């Protein structure tokens, strides 16, 4: 277990997160250093975090659906995934997402660096602020403008056919759209449709992480009459063909982030966002959220009674541990005597 207190002792360093398919970290120039298994107050992330060295900084990869694609879009633990990135000191996240195109000019194989979202999800956990703490972050511009610009530059350098801006409809899934739904989203002026990144973007903003999306068009959803409706085989085939392109864009983007002279643009997104009076926030909740809100709402010291209760439990645990050791020694003596 990697606890919040560990995050406070980590040395400051540039750490960039990448969330996407499980094969993204197998790219040229990424040297895997270690894997980190985390637990969080929100449960387990989708998989271990894969820490690599690239271009002189740490790049931390996380397979969104777990290796082997074990979690559908509704099952992904987005809270744990983003909390874990924050715990590891990540300041920027590049998200790679397979999407369906809702526009004729966005051809399968093209890349869209999106700038807006429409939320069509149902009941997903998309906030850290509940059960005793309320926060309202600004989300009018849901992706980091600076990181989006770095991704656009990188796409052009990688010779990708890239569309500057577009609205991503985040549907619930896991089933693909009906024709009626697809045409409705087109009538709204949306550009692409996917199942994952809006939830990540909301949580990343609350975690004060600069986040942007590299949307890889794999199909025309189901609206285009002269084109087959989307299938899993079609999505996978285009993704496999373009996996090298996504890797190339990420490789070219890392030095741009590294050269950024100031703190990540979203590093103060929570300023003035927390509405709850600090004295009314449960202490354990502040402990759990310390990596996110510690600079605004420090964890208060234990009261005299709480401190005494805490030490009492520590003493009980020590006594129990001593009893187990004594019992184990007794069993060993008994076994040696026979």
What are the defining features of this structure?
alpha/beta, 338 residues, eleven-stranded mixed sheet
Calculate the mean pLDDT score and round it.
88
Estimated helix fraction: 25-40%
Based on CA atoms alone, the radius of gyration comes out at: 23 Å
SS-derived structural category: alpha/beta
Low-confidence stretches: 1-11
List SSEs in N-to-C order: HEEEEHEEEHEEHEHEHHHH
Oligomeric state, counting identical vs distinct chains? single chain
Explained architecture:
The protein is of the alpha/beta class and 338 residues long. Helices cover 35% and strands 19% of the residues. Strands 1, 2, 3, 4, 5, 6, 7, 8, 9, 10 and 11 form an eleven-stranded mixed sheet that branches. Helix 4 links the parallel strand 9 (167-171) and strand 10.
């Amino acid at each position: 277990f990697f606890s919040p207190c560990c995050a406070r002792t980590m040395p400051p360093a540039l750490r960039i997160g990448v969330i996407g398919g499980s094969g993204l970290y197998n790219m040229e120039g990424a040297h895997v250093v270690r894997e980190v298994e985390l637990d969080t107050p929100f449960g387990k992330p989708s998989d271990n975090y894969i820490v690599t060295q690239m271009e002189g900084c740490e790049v931390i990869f996380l397979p969104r659906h777990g290796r082997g694609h074990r979690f559908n879009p509704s099952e992904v633990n987005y809270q744990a995934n983003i909390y874990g990135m924050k715990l590891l000191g990540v300041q920027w996240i590049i998200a790679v997402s397979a999407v369906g195109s809702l526009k004729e000019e966005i051809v399968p194989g093209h890349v869209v660096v999106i700038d807006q979202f429409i939320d069509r999800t149902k009941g997903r956990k998309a906030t850290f602020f509940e059960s005793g703490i309320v926060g309202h972050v600004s989300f009018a511009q849901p992706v980091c403008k600076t990181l989006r610009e770095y991704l656009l530059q990188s796409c052009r350098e990688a010779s990708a056919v890239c569309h500057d801006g577009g609205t991503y409809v985040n549907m619930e899934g896991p089933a693909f759209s009906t024709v009626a739904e697809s045409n409705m989203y087109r009538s709204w002026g949306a550009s692409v449709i996917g199942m994952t990144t809006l939830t990540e973007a909301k949580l990343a903003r609350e975690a004060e992480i600069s986040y942007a999306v590299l949307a890889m068009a794999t199909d025309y959803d189901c609206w285009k009459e002269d084109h087959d409706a989307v299938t899993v085989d079609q999505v996978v085939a285009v993704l496999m063909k373009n996996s090298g392109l996504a890797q190339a864009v990420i490789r070219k983007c890392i030095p741009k982030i590294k050269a950024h002279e100031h703190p990540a643009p979203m590093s103060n997104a929570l300023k003035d966002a927390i509405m709850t009076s600090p004295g009314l926030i449960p202490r354990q909740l502040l402990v759990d959220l310390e990596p996110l809100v510690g600079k605004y709402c420090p964890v208060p010291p234990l009261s005299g009674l709480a401190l005494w209760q805490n030490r009492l439990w520590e003493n009980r645990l020590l006594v129990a541990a001593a009893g187990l050791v004594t019992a184990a020694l007794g069993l060993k003596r008994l076994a040696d005597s026979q």
